[in-house]
Specification:
By secondary structure, the protein is α+β, with helices and mostly antiparallel strands. The chain contains 3 helices and 10 strands. The chain has a 10-stranded antiparallel beta sheet. Strand 3 and strand 4 form a beta hairpin. Helix 2 runs antiparallel to helix 3. The longest helix is centred in the C-terminal third of the chain and has 25 residues.
Length: 205
């Protein structure tokens, strides 16, 4: 489950939690981005760039019933997205629930989530306040409940180092996004040296 995932996070959750229908092929390969930020293993977590280059994510798959997969994505705009999937769960895409998330030092009650499915696993996706990645990084475990029913109890060992690398990945693409925005402010027809003897307008292509 190390394929590169992330673009669906933003499309799946905005403030209105609008689910999308393009979960098929969600875990698409991102070999094209390997030169800019190759995926890497950090203490049992995989950190990689999103396919759309607008953020990065950290993911880990746990052994046991249904092999739960946990993914935390971070966008260049500061948004974050958390997804948890398991092959045994019956939650369906677009289902809406409110779950309780408990970290080592605090948590979130009645947190809205939306159901999703990918590659034989079902689960949910949600987003949190901007400080959530820091709380995630400082925690030893994440416990999730549906009322009094335990949904999942996962170790977050090594998450601090993994989230630090996640932020570094996002900084790389944030810098590239800023550079592209600056470039858009200039005409593409300007030659590198307009005073050169052989200078002529660049092609629009």
């Amino acid at each position: 489950m190390r394929e590169l995932v992330h673009a669906w996070f933003r499309a799946t959750i905005r403030s209105t939690f609008v689910p999308c229908a393009f979960f098929t092929g969600l875990f698409a390969s991102a070999h094209a981005f390997a030169q800019e930020y190759p995926a890497r293993n950090i203490g049992g977590w995989t950190v990689a760039a999103s396919k759309d280059k607008e953020g990065c994510f950290v993911t880990r798959t746990y052994e046991g019933e249904g092999e739960t997969t946990l993914l935390l994505g971070l966008d260049v705009d500061g948004g974050n997205h958390l997804s948890v999937l398991n092959a045994n769960w019956s939650i369906k895409p677009k289902d809406r629930w409110k779950l309780t998330f408990r970290l080592s030092n605090g948590g979130y009650s009645n947190q809205p989530v939306v159901g999703m499915a990918s590659q034989g696993k079902q689960g949910f996706v949600t987003n949190f306040e901007a400080k959530f990645p820091s709380y995630f990084a400082a925690s030893k475990a994440l416990h999730i409940y549906r009322d009094k029913v335990p949904v999942e109890q996962l170790s977050l060992d090594g998450s601090g180092t993994a989230v630090a690398e996640l932020r570094r990945c996002v900084e790389i693409f944030s810098a590239k996004t800023t550079a592209r925005a600056r470039e858009k402010g200039r005409s593409g027809q300007i030659p590198k040296d307009p005073f050169a003897p052989d200078a002529e307008p660049r092609s629009r292509d």
